[in-house]
Amino acid sequence: MSQNYRLENVGLINREKKISFKFNKKKYYGYEGDTLASALIANGVHLVGRSFKYHRPRGFFGAGVDEPYAIVQLYRNNETDPNVRATEQELFEGLEAESVNCWPNVNFDIGAINNFLRMFFPAGFYYKTFMWPRSFWYKIYEPIIRKAAGFGKASIKHDKERYEHKYEYCDILVTGSGPSGLASAYAAAKNGAKVIIAEEKSRYGGSLLTSDVNIGNQSGLQWAEKIITELKTMPNVIVKNRSQVFGYYDHNMLVMSERVSDHLPNTEKYTPKQRLWYIRAKEVVISSGSIERPLVFGNNDTPGVMLSSAAKDYIKLYGVLPGKKPIIFTNNDSGYETAIAFEKNGIDPIVLDTRRNPKSAIITEAQNLNINIKFSYVVVAAKGYKKVRSADIAEISDDKKTLGKIENITCDCICVSGFWTPTIHLASQSGNKTVFKKEIDAFIPSKPKQNETTVGSAKGIFTLKETLNDAFENGFNLSNKITNKNIRQSAPSVVEKITSSHDKFWCVPLPKGKNYKRFLDFQNDVAVSDIELALREGFRSIEHVKRYTTLGMATDQGKTSNLNGLQLVSEVEKKVVPQVGHTTFRPPYTPVTIGAIVGREIGKHSKPTRKSPMHSWHEKNNAVFVDAGVWLRPRYYKQGNESLFQASKREAKNVRQNVGLCDVTTLGKIDVKGPDSAEFLNRVYTNAWLKLPIGKARYGVMLREDGIVMDDGTTTRISENHYHMTTTTAQAANVLSHLEYYLQIVWPELNVNVVSSTEQWAGAAIAGPKSRKLLEKLFPDKDVSNEGLPFMGYTEGNFFGCNARIFRISFSGELAYEVNVESNNGYFMWEKIMEVGKEFNIQPYGTEALSTLRIEMGHVAGSELDGRTIPFDNSLEGLVSKKKDFIGKRSLEKTAYTAPDRQKLVGVVPLDKKTSIPEGSYLVKDANAKLPNPKLGHVSASCWSVEYDNPFSLAILKDGKNMIGKKLFALSPLKNKKIPVKIVSSHYVDPEGKRVRS
Amino acid sequence: MLYIKCPYCGLRSQNEFAYGGDATIKRPNLNQEVSNTEWDNFVYLRKSPRGRHLEFWHHISGCRQWIKVDRDTATHEIFNTYKANEEV
Amino acid sequence: MQKYSVFSLIKNAFSNHKNWDVAWKDPSPKSEYDVIIIGGGGHGLATAYYLAKEHNITNVAIIEKGWIGGGNVGRNTTIIRSNYMHDENGLFSEFGMDLWRKMSQDLNYNVMFSPRGIINLAHSDAQMNAYSRRGNSMRLNGIDAVLLNREEIKKIIPMADFSENVRFPIFGGLMQPSAGTARHDAVAWGYARQADSMGVDIIQNCEVIGFDVSNGQIKGIRTSKGNIKAKKIGLCVAGSTNILAEKLNMTLPIETHLLQACVSEPIKPILDNVVTFGAGHFYCSQSDKGEMVMGGDLDGYNSYSQRGNLPTLQHVLTEGIAMFPFLSKLKMLRTWGGIMDMSMDGSPIIDKTHIKGLYLNCGWCYGGFKATPASGWTFAHTIAQDRVHKLNAGYSLNRFSTGHLIDEKGLGTKTWIS
User: Residue A844 pLDDT > 60, yes or no?
Assistant: First the structure.
């Protein structure tokens, strides 16, 4: 198809490079430099989609970020992106796009039936109906509503694009490259400031790209090009296009999204699709410009109705005619620029100006061009369904209440201009309390909250001369504050047309007997009548109106609708706009790709993975790993077709019978040093620490101040003032912070330092009756006899040339040792132990066997120390000193904690000695009691006892100490289990602890 | 993102720090008679004011020092920062 | 009061919807009420409604500083569930579930309660065990819960990450099929409309400046619209509790924190359930508009500001993509924040106070929305009868002294860690 609406020799597109693309499966051509929107308009395509609620036809309304409805499904590089604004998407070779929210297609959309029933679907209609019968809401009505809603489709394929983050610091961040942005960036950069200037579009220059002005004897466009070219050469300036600063956060942190590859057919290797910039700026210049406001009239959502500035952009930037019989409907001088642009390209527009008798240079120019201008005229309604075919127009009285005789004139587009709304989002996000400026009927920033300065039309300055003067001044002053330099640039001379003031008019009254929908929010189908209904029903605050009608809650976030909505509310409520106030602006300014926000932390890298130095050995030996926080630990070492259950049983049995080896590197290790270390430990742990001799380890329990057990572990006195503390894997980081808190804040008088040494040591637990024999071979010159290295003893040795620490501690309940070597020797140590241990039938064991061993010994771990239990609950009361004070001690006096029937750790064995009790089961008296069935306790951990070859569980049971020997039921309704059980001691194996001391 | 001046390291972004709560709460001394009310007040009660709040932060990905920050809980403005044992 | 129905909608369509009444009036305060509820959020409005409906107390005013429903009832992620481990929470919430199921008909306002089910994903056997403990507790309390394995989860949410390139693979999950979502604003408006129709005065833009207490008895409040006397006053101002408590010289076991949430642009239906990530804090559902509604961690420092920072959202969305990789292509449309009463054990307080006639309802942490009906119902009972109901007996203020804490997460007093 040919580009029937393309002008010759106009625009900034590259006509040398023709680009083919597909829309709704049909092939078209455009040029490099086009957006999808401009290329479609060039091809005469005006119908892009359907609206949210009524499924009314939708075309193009804007030419950029403010576009409320030209949303498409984009296909690029074998992937698909939902909800892409056609006005922002640059054309690339092979681009494919489809209309959204229509079925079977955009021309014939079944959903449009809603449009005919629209009288029954006013704002909030769904709150008033769909209530009967009760079950129908979820089963019938809602699924239909859900299906009709939404726009694009999400692909459930993994996103293979790359997104990156970048952190940057600068003196001055300039957000927009229009005249005010260029001028302030230039003035600041020349004065030595480190500047970042960001432009959301591909082209720099903002309004200078299309305005008919002269700066320093050049066209505005040429001046913009000159400035940007110079800025690009300066080493202290970063110039970024396709980059939008979308969020202004605390302490002058701004976030910008750079669309690095979205305009290309493919993302090149090693480059991202998008890059997110975190920019900490000393000063921020907000030069975000302004957005044209629509005028509101009947059926103003018909394709072909568009912003007058957008029409001008299409003509001047892209060489595309939005129509060949245009009406320009305006309340200010801006519309004339568009009219002149049409006229100069051979198209005769008709201008309807709501004003009675405005005078200005540009009006005169239009009149001199013989443009047909009708003053005090309005468009009453657009006619046509999928495209504007004609317009009902009428004269309007001076009080704007009465319409004259309605005439119908043929047209194919209606360009509207209701004056300009400053883009105050960033200033408002920064915390700036905006103020309403009556002269422009819009809000502008007031006193800055953070280091932000708004310039140009973003603060309501609409003449170029004033804009440049102000921006040069601000650029200099802000840079001067930072650089202390005084290199001042003078603002260039400006030639521009002086404009006359706009008409405070924005909504055309309904003609008698007509009930046209006059839309405010085009995407969400919010019309004037909806706002009126909301107000009538008592939804009077602007937030209520917004929520009830969904005004401004569409993907364009109300960029073109909010202010008109406010005007309407203030009119009906008979308040002035500032009393009504605007809703809060929050980041992002425009929607940001979630992938870009997340960056590279995806898939396997969504969280770090920590591995012990022996990890590769485990891998080679068929370890099946388990996540322990961010650590990977061997859960079991699979032999042949073994199941988890079989393997863990084998491994645990081997520990009980021979000797096993377990990687305990992941345990937290903290070096505690200093003369007051013993006193410190004495305050941190519940038990006594003042008399621990050098070369001895002790088990300790620490509490939070609320009396709840925080962690447990052994701490060893390495030398006079040096202790080696171990923590659980899960709590390692918390315990270190906890210790630092007390040392630095609560007891700064203690001369103690702590540092994490987790990563310095590789640890191997050697456990089992044959462990001493093995140790003798590993350390042939050490006395590791029961006397030489008794239970809870510590010594240092030489492990085949490596320094080693040897601890005689046991978690398994067997005779056991733990050997630590420096991390880089960990692999060597492990292999060597396995090699030497062969003759004792050594086997590695994983966390599952470790669990089994500790459970049947009645040792508590994470499932008991769950942040809700006190020492007594875990049968650790023996470790709670009555003589000294320690962290959390005072809380243990609470009535609930000292109750005679307080819960306590017990053992549980099924009566049939066969049925395993699922973890998370509850113990109850009556298995068949009516619900809620009173719970006496819960099963915290279960194993298959390798000692007795039957199931064994630990439970925390109310009045546990008096329940030993009682019969109860363990219930797991989730697993449909009712198991008769007997309560036994939690020390199921070796209750006297002979083995560890043997 | 907050910009916090660590008294030891200088201005650093918030993501280097961990929060530590109200810095005006004093732990009762060890080995001292403490009434139930006093103790519960220490463990559980917080003024949590709207406005200036003296609070602990821990420079956990930095020098690992606990510091005090005088911050407005409504605006997030930081007025000053102190070392943990500095009197404010 | 006009009855809302499809028939009234059709009837009104033919008069261009010009004859709808106001949903609630906007009266000036009277000089005295039997009960004043401070806070026109979900809980306050529900309390007033149940005072009128269940206890026939209609000389009631709701005093709201801004506009009703402007706080957390309009700022949440609309999840409704009763999947708690502790009996106090489970039984209370399940009572609430029953009120949710009947709410649209009860209020003659479609609050769009949809029992679309909530799934908590588990990423290890240890987590499956912890979920079993919670799920079994639910079942023994008469609450529905099912434990699902990986394959069963995959059937329900195939778009979750079941690939090899995943840091924390999905092992299974706990599902409460009867849990769901509702339209948050409608809840506030529905309660307001009914309370108003039974005689409750809804007074907006009225700030409480102080309290009148004499001889340990509450007498009234001073407001920006004048002094108002009352025999009983209920405090229902999540997020602002500490500000009002200060005026009463009370210090509470509560800290105020910011929780952010966000929505994506609307897409065609892809997710029917509410799903939570088990290897972090992220939850997600899809609204009837098609937006993915997402939330996660607190911003992590005391805050009364309804503005959050991006690093928290980045962290939350990282977990989002880890759970649902398809989110990567979507765009974040809107973010917002709500200020939370974080109590020291993560559970709420509904109780009498040491001041006679003053009642406290606070500490909802991030679980306030789902509790709206049950909270209103029990608080109304507590105020009307001057004694707690057995459903809220556990939510006492003195549990922090006695040690009968209700800590679902086991994190204790570090309220900012979620």
Answer: yes
Average pLDDT for A183-196: 98
pTM score, whole prediction: 0.97
Q: Which residue type is seen at A953?
A: S
Give all domains of chain A, ordered by start, each with its CATH number: 1-153 (3.10.20.440), 163-290+422-495 (3.50.50.60), 294-418 (3.50.50.60), 512-592 (1.10.10.1100), 898-998 (2.40.30.110)
Best of B50, B75, B77 to mutate (most C CBs within 10 Å, chain C): B50
> What are the angstrom distances between the C-alpha of C11 and each of A526, A951, C392?
21, 70, 44
Q: Is the Cβ–Cβ distance between A876 and A682 less than 8 Å?
A: no
Interface mutation target, options C252, C299, C303, C307, chain B, most CBs of B under 10 Å? C303
Q: Which amino acid is at A949?
A: D
Under 8 Å between Cβ of A907 and A707: no
Measured CA to CA in angstroms, residue A599 lies from A81, A163, A165, A268 at distances of 17, 5, 6, 17
Longest Cα separation, chain B: 43
pLDDT tens profile A850-867: 999 999 999 999 999 999
Do residue A705 and residue B3 have CB atoms under 8 angstroms apart? no
> Which domains does chain B possess?
3-27+45-83 (3.30.2270.10)
Instruction: Tell whether A134 is within 8 A of chain C (Cβ).
Output: yes
* Residues of chain C contacting A897 with CB distance shorter than 8 Å: 403
Q: Tell which residue, A331, A372, A371, has the closest CA to residue A353.
A: A331
Beta bridge partners of C80: C180
SS3 for A251? helix
**Euclidean distance between CA atoms B24 and C241, whole angstroms:** 20
Length of chain A: 998
Q: What is the dihedral of CA A547, A549, A555, A557, to 10 degrees?
A: -70
> Do the Cβ atoms of B43 and A249 come within 8 Å?
no
The sign of the CA dihedral C270, C272, C274, C275 is negative
Of B27, B31, B60, the CB nearest to A737: B60
**From CA C194, how far away is CA C98, in angstroms rounded?**
19
Residue A897 has a CB neighbour count (10 Å cut-off) of 18
Report yes or no: C185 at the A interface, CB cutoff 8 Å.
yes
First to last CA, chain B: 25
User: Residue with structure tokens 């620029």?
Assistant: A337
Mutation for A interface: C165, C181, C310, C415, most A CBs within 10 A = C310
Question: Each residue of A398-454: pLDDT tens digit?
Answer: 999 999 999 999 999 999 999 999 999 999 999 999 999 999 999 999 999 999 999
Return the amino acid letter for C409: K
pLDDT in tens, A90-115: 999 999 999 998 888 888 888 888 88
Amino acid, res. A444:
I
Among residues A92, A257, A286, the alpha carbon closest in space to that of A185 is found at A286
Measured CA to CA, the distance from residue A830 to residue A834 in angstroms comes to 6
Query: B3 by DSSP, 3-state: which?
Result: strand
Q: What is the pLDDT of residues A597-621, one digit of tens each?
A: 999 999 999 999 999 999 999 999 9
pLDDT tens digit sequence for A272-324: 999 999 999 999 999 999 999 999 999 999 999 999 999 999 999 999 999 99
Closest CA to A105 of A141, A73, A69: A73
Q: Which of C254, C307, C310 sits opposite B48 (nearest CB)?
A: C254
Which amino acid is located at A918 in the chain?
P
Q: How far apart are CA A626 and CA C168, in angstroms?
A: 10
Helix extents (H) in C56-183: 87-107, 125-140, 150-156
Cα Dmax for chain C? 68
Q: Does C137 touch chain A (CB under 8 A)?
A: yes
Residues A739, A668: Cα–Cα separation, whole Å: 13
